[in-house]
Design brief:
Blueprint lengths: L3 H24 L5 H25 L7 H25 L5 H21 L31 H9 L2
Amino acid sequence: MSDPRLDRAVHLALLAVAAVTAGMVAAGYTGPLRPLAALVTAALLPGAAVVALLPRIIRAPRPDTATWIMLACAFSLAVETVCALAMVWLRWWRPAPAAAVLGVLAAVILTAHLRRPATTKRPTTTERPTAPARPAPSARPARPAKPVEAARAADGR
């Protein structure tokens, strides 16, 4: 996200929701909050980890909030689809351990991202880089005269 503080808060909230979801699954809770927590965790956690890694993989500006949510959902869907496809091809359909492995991997990536010191602000996708300011005309060094012009000035023409 374009604001590092918001980025940090969202990552912490996602880690908290993932921990609550894991706790509900471990305790066998089947109330109305479990599907909601599981949906948020499945829809955003793996993608948030991928989006957190993007600046290290490619030179990309920080996305704004709407772009971040779309990228997180898209990458989550892609990662989970690849995992499901691998389980089908290997004839080893175990969705609970696969979800646990994905959740732990994403949590490790997000925790490592949170522990990294904040870097300088990168431009967002909506900001345009500005050109460096040109020096004022009086600050520029004078151009040397061409040899013909210097000779004419010496002759008085």
